[in-house]
Amino acid sequence: MNRVGILTVSDRSSRGERADESGPLLRQMVERRGWSVECASIAPDDSPSIQAVLIDWADKAHLDLVLTTGGTGFAPRDVTPEATRAVIERQAPGLAEAMRAASLLKTPHAMLSRAVCGIRGRTLIVNLPGSSKAARENLETILPALPHAIALLQESPDSERGHQIPSFKSQI
Predict the structure, then answer these.
(1) Please, are residues 1 and 34 in contact by the beta-carbon 8 Å criterion?
(2) Dist. CA 157–CA 140, nearest whole Å
(3) Helical H runs in the chain?
(4) Residues of 116-148 as b/e, b for ≥16 C-beta within 10 angstroms?
(5) What pLDDT sits at residue 157?
């Protein structure tokens, strides 16, 4: 079972001024896959705070996957991509590219996404948009590839089986 962390990045939600809608939605989505949400938190749009959570969840909690939601746009306080880049060891640009490409089919605003995806140790970190609708759509886009990505990071003996995804061509 994959172990997941969900970090909502929002000044207003961290102060209790606005309910976190995307974090609970992402929890439902991953739990429906049978994955376990081990950590969930809300952080302000502050790079040191975001970095501290990402490092803790990757290095101490040893999560397989960390999903962030929020802070990926153009607003001056949107620093999630910078915080993520500061802690990852390797980028996983294909995931972010796939999310932007799929989102562009729905809205030209997808061009404004600065989401980053990458690896720290054996943990995959994925930035998702803050809106619950966009977070859901972006996670749905990459969800078919995540089990294989995590299996590769964990050096699972069965990880090579994930290369054959018969239904993928029907999605293109």
Answers:
(1) yes
(2) 26
(3) 11-14, 22-32, 47-59, 80-87, 93-104, 132-142, 146-153, 168-171
(4) bbbbbeebbbbbbbbebebbbbbbebbeebbbb
(5) 79
Contact assessment for residue 93 and residue 117, using Cβ atoms and an 8 Å cutoff = yes
Q: What value does the CA radius of gyration of the chain take, rounded to a whole number of Å?
A: 15
8 Å CB contact between 24 and 42: no
User: For 8-45, how does the pLDDT look when each residue is reduced to its tens digit (9 = 90+)?
Assistant: 999 999 999 999 999 999 999 999 999 999 999 999 99
Which class for 27: exposed (0-12), middle (13-18), buried (19 or more C-beta within 10 A)? middle
Cα–Cα separations (whole angstroms), residue 13 to 5, 18, 20, 44, 105? 17, 5, 6, 8, 29
Domains of the chain with CATH codes: 3-171 (3.40.980.10)
The pTM of this model reads 0.92
Identify residue 31 by its one-letter amino acid code: E
Closest CA to 8 of 138, 114, 133, 129: 129
> Which tens digits make up the pLDDT trace of 114-155?
999 999 999 999 999 999 999 999 999 999 999 999 999 999
